[in-house]
Every structure is written in C-alpha cells, then in structure tokens.
Amino acid sequence: MWHYFVYFASLSITLWLISIIIKIFYDKNWLINLSNIFAILGICILGLFIVLYWLEIDRPPMRTMAETRLWYSFLVSIVNVAIHRFFKNKLVLILGLIMASVFLISDILHPEYQSRNLMPALQSFWFIPHVSVYMISYATFGSATILAISGFKSKSNKSQNINQAMILIYPGFMLLTFGMLFGALWGKIAWGDYWAWDPKETWALITWLFYLLLIHIHHRHPHKYLILQTLMIISFIMLMITWLGIKYLPTATQSIHVYGS
Fold it and tell me: What is the pLDDT of residue 261?
C-alpha cells in the first residue's frame, strides 16, 4: 500500500494547494466555501490512505518517523481547519495546510519499506495511546505556533492571535503530559524503568518545561504578548528537536527511541 502513498499524498497536496490559492486570491462566498471543501477532501483522502495502510500492515502505522510524519500531516490539517472555522482566521488555514503539505512531501522524498511486524518493545498496550496522544499534542502546538507567527503580520491582531493560540496551548500541554505518563508506564513494562534519562526522554522533559514556563508566564502576565509569542515559537522549536532532531545528535546511538528513519 505504501507504493501508492505518492498518489494519495499528491492528491491531498493538490487539493490543499487549490484551497490555498482560492483563499489568497478570491473572497466570494461560494469560492470560500469551495476552498473549505477542497481542504476537507484533502484530509479525507489522507485519512483513507491511513486506514487502508493500517489494514494492510495489520498494525498501527506509528512505528517509523515517516509514519509519524503522516499522522502529523493528517492531524495538523484537521486542527487548522477547525481553527479556521471557529476563529475565521484565513492565514492560519493557509499556513496549516502548507505545514501539512511539507511533511507529506518529506515522506514522498524519503520512501520506506514498512515491516508488518513490531519489535517486542513496541508490542505493548501503551504503544497506541502514547504515540497518538503525542501526535495530537504536537499538532495542537503546531497550530498554536502558526497563530503566534501570524500575529507578526499585524500588530493590531497580535493580542487576539496570542489569546487564541493560548486556548490551544492548555489542552496541548495536558495531552503532552499524558503522553509522558503513558510513555513512563510503557517504559516500565518494556525496559523495567519508568524513566531512564534516554536522550529523547530528556528532550521531551525540556519541551514539557518550556511549555510549562509559557503557561506560567501567561497566567501571571497575560498581556506580555511579545514574550508569549517568542516563547511559544521557541517551545515549538524544542518540540521539533525532540521529535525530529534527536536522531541527528551525537547521543542518538544511545537512544532506545530510534526505531526507524
């Protein structure tokens, strides 16, 4: 099924690109509605591939980095379509679909052969909740960061964008916390310890602390928009290092979390 991924991904990207072009250049109501339909169709096509791929390999497609990028594209597009619907922020949808497309293109450029079988450490009840909760939190944080970045465009909208972004940060942080807890329970079953100071675990903790700091500052100083905006972007960079950058660090060879590229 992975051999057909390029066709599903290309169709989703094409639909998202059409949606973006309409959003940028047209403002008629029927075209705006058509743009939203194209965005949702792209999500549905990607979701269909995930379901078919899952059925074919007979395991949750969450093992390799390519598979997690697939989930991220799917989830971040859903979250940003929802944000666009509730906040009526056109730029957020545009940037969100671009982000989702970039991750799909990355998978197209780095095809992988996917094994049906999971290694023993991954054959745990906690595998699906741990990875899925993390991916949802990552998508939520990604969408919040897009809102923060879009605030640079207009100073008058900065406070509104940051407040909207913080609405996403709180549930994202809750999911991130649950992801860490599920991972600790999984680690106890798989390797005998709740926490081993693995490089990925360490960076996950660093990311968690950055978002905790962000929430603390927002609670004490909710109108420090520039500080909140900057810290939101830095926190997301820490998240990307945790998710995608660990394998490029010298300590990657010591990590028990490096399963595939």
Answer: 43
